[in-house]
Amino acid sequence: MGRRAWRRRLVQIQHLTALFVFPFSIFLVLVFLGGCASPGQPVARKPQVPAPIADLAVQRSGNSAVLTFTLPHETVERRLLKHAPAIEIYREFSSGPPEAAQATALADTSLLVTIPAALAAHYEQKGQIRYVDAWTPDVLKQHLGETAIYTVRTRVSSKKQSPDSNIAAVAVYPVPEPIADLQAKLAPSAVSLSWTAPQQTPAGPVPGIKEYEVYRAEFSAGSGSEKGAAAQPRIFAIGGAKEAQSPPEKIGTSESPEYQDAGVAVGAGYQYFVRSVVEYAGQAYESADSNLATITMRDVFPPSAPTGLVVVPVPAEQGTAAHLDLSWNISPETDVAGYNVYRSEQEDAQGTRLNSALLPTPAFSDMSAVAGQRYWYRVAAVDRSGNESAPSAAGVPGEVPAESQPKP
To answer: What CA–CA distance (Å, rounded) separates 379 from 358?
Structure first.
């Protein structure tokens, strides 16, 4: 083949190569650009599934079950939840005891209530959700003696909810309606409580009250009135209505609808509530709290009247005028601050007080008695709160003889 023929052949090969390489390059570029510029098929995202609640607890409060639990903040994959979950509370009833129910998987549950995520904050107390399942009379009648079993689920998506929480269970028995007429009255060195015994439960008559439990909280009596600011200086909720300086404590029990609280101090303020206790199957169950009775302890009770008053005439001696000496029995009460002496010229009248200041001891000398004038004396005791007793029972007569007066 000559040189010219080789050149022609080389040119033909170059043309063929260009015709093949260029379209293929264009194809690769288009594929690359197409892959970068246009999205592929949308990938479905998995809905977030909250982690199961693990601290569900239930307690009775009267004829209600009070549920408490902490909302999850993570998913089952331990990732943070992007949204607050809605709450679903389930309930069923079992014939077994609560202990057995807590160890058994739920077979048939019914949705009791759904709490939307937007409303969950209304049920939050101290970082936990608190929900009260108030048993209706029908529930108490139909499931008397059974066990109410609860479980909770949460969800942030309508597609999938969380796994079940732990199981919480409580026995169903009707207890008396809350006492509504608790009264607190001042008594000597005590507060006297009284109320009317309840006769009904939501399911029928009271089966018999075993006892009453008395609870008390203290508040600062100097912070306001008894029914206003005085009852609310601090943070402890009492009966769901008021606040006090100290949390409520059980101070005693009573088998009758009355109680005397002698462990009080003058000047302190107190709030009381009472619960009725009934017994089922050897187990005690409390009613809900009664109304609150608020009182400030003030000593408004006078001491008893002194006894043993004696009036003795004393003749003049060494420049001291004749006078009358009075003495009486010391008061047995521990808060007596002193005594007052009264003198009258009439037997049936209390007369005028002779001492300008309280007498610290049971003795007094009447230096102003006029010789030959007959007087009647009485004595009264005064406690540290300023309460004065009634005068001694009857006026005791006394007289300075006229001849005992020194002559001018």
So the answer is: 11
